Fold each of these.
Amino acid sequence: MTQDKKNDNATAPRIGVYICHCGGNISDHVDVDAVRRQIERMPGVAVARTNMFMCSDPGQAAIAEDLQNGTVDRVVVASCAPSLHEATFRNAIRRAGANPYIYEHVNIREQVSWVHHGETATAKAADLVAAAAAKAGLLKPLTPIRVPATRHATVIGGGVAGLSAARDLAARGIPVALVEKSSYLGGQLARLDRIAPTGERATDLVRELAGAVLEHPDIAVYTDTQVVGCDGYIGNFKLTLRRQAADALIGAQADDIPPAGIRPTGPSAAERQETALETGAIILATGFRSYQPRRGEYGFGEYAPVLTLPALIEKMARQAHQGPLLQIDGRPIRSVAMIHCVGSRQIPGIHTEDEEGRLNEYCSRTCCTATLNAADRIRREHPGTRVYELYRDIRTYGRGQEDLYEQAARNGVVFLRFEPDQEPRVTAADPDDGFALKIQVTDTLTFGETLDVPADLVVLATGMEPNDVSDLVEMMKLPVGTDRFLLEVHPKLRPVEMPVGGIFVAGTCQAPFDVGETCNAAGAAAVKAAAMLTEGHVELDPFVAEVDTARCQGNGACVEACLNPGALNLVEMQIDGQTVQRARVTPALCLGCGACVAVCPTNAIDVCGMTLRQYEAMVDAIVAGPAAAETV
Amino acid sequence: MGPAIQAKENKILVLATESCAYPGADSVGQAHSSYPANVYILRVKAPVLFPERFYLDCFAKGIAGIIVMSCGEECPYDGAYHALARRLDRVYQTMKAQEIDIRRLRLTAICTVCNRAFLNEVNQMNELVQTLISAGHA
Amino acid sequence: MDDNLNRNVDAIVIGGGIAGLQAALDLADQGFSVAVIEKDASVGGKMIRLSKVFPTLDCASCITTPKMAAAAHHERITLYTYCDLKSLQRVDGSVRADVIQRPRYVDAQKCIGCRKCEFTCPVMVADQEQGGFSPTKAIAIPFSNAIPQIAVLDPEHCMLCGRCERVCPTQAVDYFQKPRPFTVTARTAVITTGFEMTGMTDKPQYGRGTIPNLIDALQMERLLAPHGPYNRVLRPSDGKAPDSIAYIQCAGSRDISMGLSYCSRVCCMYAIKQAMLLSGSLPLADITIYYMDIRAFGKGYEQFFQNAQAMGINFVRAKVAAVEAGPDGSVRLHYEAQDGEGVTTSDHDLAVLSLGLIPAWHPDGICTLATGTDRFIEVLRPKLAPVQTSMAGVFTAGAASGPKDIVDTITEAGNAAMAAGRYLAAQPGSTPRPAETRADIEATVHIDG
C-alpha cells in the first residue's frame, strides 16, 4: 500500500522510516507498531518498518534493500541515542551506495522509553518520528568538504620548541621552513649551562637539535628573518618573510657560539630580502625572555652584587675556577642569597606593577629547580661558600627534582621561607660586617623570626615572560591570555591549537615549561600538523554555512555575526549585469555554528544539514503530531 | 493579549547542544529517571543559530515552553554563548511587549552528567506550563 | 562472530586512559592503524572517574567522553577492553603483545547495553566506581558513561540465580564464557599504563584505613561528581553534612618513611580544586588544607590557588604527623604548627588524605622495559626525548613515566604519537595505510554495529 500512495512527483522525497524494538527496551513502553501505522500515513513516507534490532545485520539489510531498489531515498531510524548508532546507520547507507547525509536519527530509547511509560511514551515517540520524517523530507545529499593542503609547514622560532617541531615534521616527510628572528639557533637554552636534574650540558642539546635540523634536506632555515605577512587559511597559508641585517657576531667562531646558540654557516634559505612562502600549517614557537627586574627590586641595579639567575649561570659557565670559595667577577663569595619568585607569583596589592600596569601572577615553573641546581653546584664545588635560599614554596614537582631538593639540603643549602607580604629586604651591610649586603627576612620556618642574612652576592630567580609577538598576534588573529602568553583553544581538548585552523602553538610562548616539557609540546603540535598534512588535503564536515545568492542582499549582518573572522566575507559579483555585493562562505574556515543564520534579514544563509527550515518543520510536526501532519 | 496556552498545547521544546546538553539528556535516560513526556528535545550544534522570530513563532504555533540548554561557558564556539544570551534578551523584550509570560523561555547550561539539573529544569518548566494552563492563559 | 581477536596493526597502545586515547587518536589521525589494550571494562581511565578538573573547573566527563567516543568510532582504532597484557616482546623487528581477555560472562557482540540484567539482578555489591559508597549489582554496566556499554558479571558475588539470563533480550549472558587469549602484532608500541593511588592502609600514623570519615581523594571525587553516590557531599559514617573538612597533603608523597620520596605533582591542585567545589556545595563549611609547599606550577594554576585563598579556604603550613578517630565521628589531626604553638591538634567532621601516585603497572615478567628507582617507566632522555623508553620502538606517555596532570599528560601523549609516527616512518616500506575494512571486534561492535 505504501507504493500506492507514492507521490507522483518523481523528485519528491521518498522517506523510509525504520523503528527499533531494541528487544523490548523500546517496545516494552512504546507501541512500536502503532507508531509505524501512524507514520506510514504521513505524506512523503514511502515505507515504515519495524525490527527487533535495527542495528543487527538484518535490520541494516532492510534499509540497504529499500535504498537499492529505489523504494526510498531518505532514511529515518528510530532507536537508541545517536551517540551509539548514528554512525552505524550512516555507514550502512554509504555501503548501500547512497549519500550518508540523507539520514536522520530519532532517539526513542534514552529520551522516550527509558524515561516515559504508557500511552504518553507512544505518543511522544510518534511525534518525534514525525518530526524526523518532516526534517528528512528537506535533507539534501552532502559531500564532505575537501580543502587541498600544501604539504609544507612553517615553524616560527628557532629555540628548542621550534627546532624540535621542525625535526619531527621533516622526519614525517613534510618539508619545513624554520624562521628565526636572530642569527642563531638554540634560543634561551643556549644560555644555560648544565641542566637539572639530568646534568646534561645545554650546549650539547642545542648542538644535537640544531645539527639535526641543519642537516635535514627538507628543512629550510631562515635566520635573521621575520614573518611580516600572513594570508589564507588552513592548508593554504601565504606568508611573507623579510630578511634583516644579521646580528653582530659574538666571539670569534662563527658557527657555534655559546651563549648565543648555533649560527648556521651555510647559505641562508632566504636569497632575497622578501620571500613569499606557501605553507599548509604554522607552528608558533616564539619562546620566552627572562624577567628583567625593576631597578631597586631586591637592590637590583642599585648594588652591583645583585644578579639574575641567568646572569649567574652564564658567569659560572664561563669560569672554571676551582677552590673553596665561589668567585664571581673576580670577587670571592663567602655567602650567597638566592631569592625565589622574582617576577613570578606576583599578587595584586602586594607587588608593584610594571610601567604598563601588569603583574606576572603566574608561577614560572622552572626557576625552583634551576635555583636549587645552581645552589647545589655551588655547595659541591665551593664548599666554603654558604648558600641561602629564600623561597615561598619549593616547587620541585618533576621526576628527579625532589631528589635534587633533598640533595641540596644535605649539601648544606640553608632554606628560609617568607610570606609574599613580608618580602626580604636587600640593603647595604654595615661596613663592619665585612659583607657587601644583608638581607632581612622574616622566616616562617623558625616561627616568624626576623633574621639578617649576610651576603656577598644576591641572586634573583627571575621568571619567564613571553616574547613580544604582538605583530604575529595582530597578523594571525591569535588570542592572548591575561598572562600575555598565547592562549590555546582548550587546555585539555585542544591544548596545542589556536582557534584559527592550521595554526599551532609549541613551547614557552604558551606557558613556562622546562626543556622536556617543551619537547613534548613541540611533538604534540607537530603531530597535529602532520596529521593534517599527511593526506595532501583536509577533509571537513559538510555542516557549514551556505549562501543563497538569489536571496542575499549583501547587507553584511552575517559577516558581522560570524564567530570565526574570515569564514564569511562580502564579495562583489555580477548578477544580471549588475555589480552587487553578496556574502561568500569560506567552508574551510566555517565552524558551522549558525550565528550567521539567525541574523540574516532575508533568510539567505543556512547551515547545511541543519537548516532553519528543517528545524521549523520539526517544530510543526511536534506541535501537530503524525495524525495531523497527515492532513497537511 | 498574547497567545494563550490551550489545554492540549502543553508541549515543551528543549534545544539541546550536541556536545553537552543532548548527551546530558541521554544520561538521564540511562539512569531511567522519569520526567514529563511533553518534553521534546531537539539536538542542535549551537542554539545561536535560531533567530528571535524562531522562538516567537514556536509560541505562536502552540509550544508552551522553550528551554535552551547550552554548554554555557564551555561552549565550543567562542563568543556564541554571549551572542545567544544577548539575543534571548531581545526575545524577552518582545515577549513582554506581546504579553507572553517570559518564564516560558529559559536559557540554561547543562553538561553531559548534569542529571539533576536537567530534571530540575524540565520539571520546573512543566509546573509553570501546567499552572499557566490551569490559569487559562499565558 | 569472529572468534579470532588476533590483529596486525601499526601501533599497540597499552592502556586506554586519557594518555592512551590521545596517543591512539594522534596515531590514527596520521593514518596508522592502532590497537588499544585496556585492563578495565571501559576506556577512559582515571579521568572519566573524576568530577571536575583544574584549573578550568570543567566537567571531567564532558572533556573525556568526546575523546573516548572519537577513539571508539575511529576507523583505524580497535579498542580491546577487559584485557590483561601477558607479554610484550620485540620479535623480528616487530612488537608482539600476548593478551588475555577476561570473561565478562556477557557476550560483547550480543549485549546492547540496555541494563535489563542489572535491574533484575537481586545481588547488591558495593560499587567501587562510586568509591564503595553506594551499591551496584552483581551484573552491571560499569558506569553510566562507560565505553563500551557492555554489562559485566561479577563472578565473586553472582548467585547463579539465572534471572539475568532469562531477562536479557539478546541472550547475551553466558555463564560459561572463558578467558580468550589473543595476539596483537605491531611495529611500535606506546605504554600509557597510568597510575594508582597509594593505599589508605599504608601508613600506621594515618590509621591504616580504620578511621571513620577519613577518606581518600578519589572517594571525594565521587562525592563531588554530579552523578555521585549521594548526589551531595555527606560523610560516610552517619550521613551528616560536614561542617569542617581537612585535607592532609603529601599523605603518601615526599615521605621517605613510606618509600615514596618523590612529589606526586597533582595533589596540591586536586585538593585546592576539591576545596573550591566543596565551598560551592557546602558554603558554610570550614575547609583547611594542611600542606608543606603548594605546588601550583602549571598554566593558570597559581591564579587558581590565589582564588582559593580569596574564597576563604584555609591553608595551614604543617605536615600532619598523625591522625586518629575523634569524638562524634570526627577525625583528629596532630601536627606541628608553624606559628610557634608547637604540637597542635584539630578535629574535623571529615578528612581527606591526598594520597600519592604510584605506577598502575610494572613490566616485571611481561617485558624488558627499564624502570626507575621510583618504579615508574624509565625514559632515557627526559630532556630531548621524554617519551623514549629503554626498548627500541617503544614509547611512553602520561603517568606511566611519573605522576603528571591531565594537561601535561595529553601533551605528552601527542609527543609519543609523534615519536611513534617517526619510528614507523623510518621503517622500510612504511607508508600510512588507508583505513582497512572495519574488523568486528568486541569493543567496537556495540558502538558501530
Amino acid sequence: MLSENSENQAGIKEYPDANGHFERYGGRYIAEILMPAVLELDEQRQKIMPDPDFNKELIDLLEKYVGRPTPLYFAKRLTEHLQGAKIYLKREDLAHTGAHKINNTIGQALLAHRMGKTRVIAETGAGQHGVATATAAALLGMKCRIFMGVEDIERQAPNVKRMELLGAGITPVDSGSGTLKDAMNEAMRHWVATVSDTFYIIGSVAGPHPYPVMVRDFQKIIGVETKKQILKAAGRLPDILIACVGGGSNAMGLFYPFLDDSTTLIGVEAGGKGLDTDEHAATLTCGSPGVLHGSKSYVLQDEHGQIAPVHSISAGLDYPGVGPEHSLLKDIKRVIYTTADDCEALAAFKMLCLHEGIIPALESSHALAYAIKEAPKRAKDEIMIVNLSGRGDKDLDMVVLALEKEK
Amino acid sequence: MNRLSKAFKNAAEKKEKALVGFVTAGDPTLDESKKIIKKMCESGVDILELGVPFSDPTADGPVIQRSSERALKNKITLETVLKITAELRQDIEVPIILFSYYNPIFAFGPQKFYEKARAAGADGVLVVDLPPEESDELTGGWNDGDFSLIRLVAPTTPSERIAKIAASASGFLYLVSMTGVTGSGGLNTSLIADLVREVRIYSDLPLCVGFGISTVDDVANVAQVADGVVIGSAFERLIEENIDKPDLAERLAERTEEYKEATKI
C-alpha cells in the first residue's frame, strides 16, 4: 500500500527517466564517439554522488572554499522604493568567483577527479563558468582549457584575464557568431578528440544526459538553502521566485526544491533588442522543440531546423538553446517564462547599484528587471525572491558603453 | 538486391573496395554542386554521401563546417537536398546516403522525411548525432528494408556496444577511424585494422571506414582492411581550393579516379 502510494506521488521532481528524458525532452543526441564517455559518466555519477565521502568533501569545500550558504538578503531600500512585495535577494554573487557557477564546477571537478580524469574543458559565455571551472581545476591540480567566443572575449575581458591567472588555456572561437553556442560547438569538437583523458564540465542544465540532471543536482543547493532561509526569516514559503534563464542552471537550482510547493516560479529570458526583432535570446518564449548540443529542448531556429543567430546584452544569456527540464516545466506550466530586454536589464542593473549598493551581473539583472516591474503590483505582505546569480564586475565595460549610448 | 548491396558486390567482383564520396549538397553553388556530384559518380564514387548542411555541425572539422556555411548561404535546405537526390536518381544508379544532423530532419518531420527520401530515391540516411538510444523516434515507422539507417562504430565503442549496434544495423556499418572530428590528421592504419577485425566478429555487413582519410596512400591502406573507404573533407577541401575554377567538377573527377584506383586490391 505504502509503495503504491509513493508511486502515485511521484511528481515533477522525479524526472528525468533512466535515459535522461524529461517526457519528450532531453536524451542523448551526440556522436557515437562520445556515447561511451557519456554512459560512463552516468554510471559513475550515480555511484559517486550518493557516496557519503564524496558528499562530505563536496559540502566541506562548498562551506569553507565557496563560502556557502550564501545569504538571503532582504532588499529593504529597493522594496521601499518599489512600494510593493518584499524583495529578497539570494546572494549567489557572494559565492567564491562571484556567481553560482562554482557550485557546479566544484562538484563536477571532484567527480572528474574521482573518475581519474586529469584534464577538464569547459565552454563559457559570460566567463563566469570558465572562471569557476579554472578555479576548480586549480584547486584540484587538474589541467584546464576554456572555449570562449571571440565576441565574448571582447565583452567579458576581465574574466579572460582571471582564467589565465588561474592557469587555464583559452581557445578563442571565431566560428558562427563567436558567442556561447559556438564555444560549446568547439568544446564538443575538442572533447571528441580528447575524450580518453578529458572531462567536459558543462556549465548549464543543457547538453546530453546526464548533464542536465547532474548540473541541477549540483545547483539545487541554491533552492535548498533559500527554502530554509526564508522559513527562518519569514516563517513561510515565498509567493514568487524569479531567476534569469539562459541555459537555465541558476533557475533550475533555485526552482527545483520548490517544484512541489505552491510558490509561483518565474524564469526570465533575454529579450535583447525586443521580441519583434531577430535580436533576442528568448528560447522558451519564442522557440520551438529541436535538438541542439546533445539534447532535445526548445531551440531558436528557422523552419528548416537551422539554429538562429541570437542576441543579448548579457553574454551568459546569449544562447539559442535551454535546458530540457525547463522545456518540460514550460509545457506543464509549472514555471512561467517571460522576458526582459536589454534596456530593462540595464535599468535594473543601475537601480540595484543605487538602492542597495550591489552591482549585479547583467544576467541576473534580467531577473531583477522582472521583479522591479512586478513588485509594485503585489501586496506588501507578499514575498518575492530574486536569484542574484552573479556579480557585475565583469560587465562594467559593457554597461558603461551601453549607458553612454543611451545618453 | 538493393542498390547498396549491389554496389559492394560490384566492387568485390572487380577486386576493389567501395569508394564512398561525401560532399555537402549545394556547395559551392546548387548548379555547380550537381555537376560535381554527377562527375564524381561517373568517375568512380560507388556510394554517394550527400551532406545536408547544418548551422552547428559539432562532429565536423573546419573544412566541412565551411562547406556547410557556403551551402546555407545558398539557402540549401533538407527539401533542396531531397530534390537534388530525385534529380540525380533520374541519371545515376549510385546508392545515395543522406548525411545529416538530426535537427533538420526533426524540423522536417521524421516520418515525412522517410517517405520523401525513399520517394526521391535515397537508399538510406546517416544521422551523426542520433545514437541507437534515440533512433527509434526516427525509424519507428519504417517498413522498407531497403532504406537503411547507417550506424556508426567508433574506436571508443566497447565490444558489447558494438554487438548491440551491429544487431540493429543495415546497409553498411560506418567505422570512425579515430577519435576526432572529420578532416583530422593522424590516421593510424593498424588501429583501423584492429577496429575492423573487432567489428567483423559481430557483423557480416560491409564495413566502411571514414574520418581523416585524405591521400591516395591513405585510401590504399584502408582498402586493404575495409570494404569501403569514405572520403569527405578531402573532396570538400578540393572544392574550397578551386572554388572559382571553371574546371572545378573535372578536378573533382580527376581526384575521384585517383582514389578509385587506390581501392583496387
